[in-house]
From TrEMBL:
This is Amidohydrolase family protein. Coiled coil: none annotated. InterPro entries: ACMSD, Amidohydro-rel, Metal_Hydrolase. It comes from Ignisphaera cupida. The keyword Lyase applies. It comes from the Archaea. The keyword Ribosomal protein does not apply. Residues 71-276 form the Amidohydrolase-related domain. Keywords: Lyase. One of its GO terms (molecular function) is lyase activity.
Length: 286
């Protein structure tokens, strides 16, 4: 691509500096990227929830990088609802991360809780009010044990209640790709045909195409996704750390599938790798 790409799915490991991020973005031709705050137990002692102190420290770290690379880095607060017992405390912590530390979104992996549970509704209402998106893990997960049963695509249908809540489902929810696309259609077509109104004039849900599916399944998953939902509902994510080689490999793989194997147009590629990121972050069409 002649212009830099936008990557909606980058993990922080808690030690990166702004200089590290800038170098990696330059090398990988990343114009803009969403980087999640560090969850110290992800892939490690994953039975243990992040503590409030660890959460606050990770938010301070990523917000500092965002400030240094304003307009290029969009910090997302990795929110683990297990860290507190009272949803009102959770709401206050998220509001602090977004309103005080100026992060631009929220990352969540359902584990020990389902995204449709009503006790979470005050959190969704606050995120709507703050006008930031959520990127949810969807599908089988390596991050937390026994989390996949909480991350099924149909569990997110209840979020239709929150019409201003922009959210993405990562990994095309592999191995439940068909289920994910059915949920995507549930959000897309009532809006498209005018049966329900949307403040965005489009689906509030978007599908993050970062790979959960191995290559043998990824081609089929992307073919189904783009032919059924269209490029407007797909957004590129690498699911990498701050690692230029990893990001480059993800970009090259998905571009090869979309452009060479599936013969998609330059306009569609532009939406997936650039324009949809702008809408997801801001809620405004570019």
């Amino acid at each position: 691509m002649s212009k830099g790409i936008c990557d909606v799915h980058i993990h922080s490991w808690g030690k990166e500096t702004a200089e590290d991020v800038e170098k990696a973005f330059d090398k990988a031709n990343v114009e803009k990227g969403a980087i999640f705050s560090y969850h110290p137990h992800l892939l490690r002692d994953v039975w243990t929830p992040i503590s409030v102190e660890e959460f606050r420290n990770s938010i301070v770290h990523i917000s500092g990088i965002q400030k240094m690379l304003s307009g290029r880095v969009y910090g997302f607060a990795f929110v683990d609802p297990r860290m507190v017992k009272d949803v009102n405390e959770l709401v206050k912590l998220v509001e602090w991360a977004i309103a005080d530390r100026e992060l631009r979104g929220v990352k969540m992996i359902p584990a020990g809780w389902y995204p449709y549970e009503e006790w979470l509704y005050p959190l969704y209402e606050k995120i709507e009010e703050l006008n930031v998106p959520i990127l949810f893990h969807c599908g089988i997960s390596w991050g937390f044990p026994d989390s996949s049963r909480f991350c099924r695509p149909t569990h997110y249908e209840a979020l239709m209640k929150f019409k201003k809540l922009r959210f993405a489902l990562a990994h095309i929810c592999w191995p439940w790709v068909d289920e994910a696309l059915a949920v995507g259609g549930r959000f897309l077509y009532p809006t498209k045909y005018g049966w329900i109104s949307s403040p965005y004039g489009r689906s509030q849900l978007i599908i993050d195409i970062s790979s959960g599916a191995p290559m043998q399944w990824k081609i089929d998953a992307l073919f189904k996704a783009i032919t059924y939902l269209g490029a407007d509902m797909l957004i590129f994510g690498s699911d990498c750390g701050v690692d230029a080689n990893c990001i480059n490999a993800a970009v090259n793989r998905d571009l090869m599938i979309l452009k060479t194997i599936l013969a998609r147009s330059d306009e569609e590629i532009e939406k997936i790798f650039r324009k949809n990121f702008e809408w997801f972050i801001s809620g405004k069409l570019s």
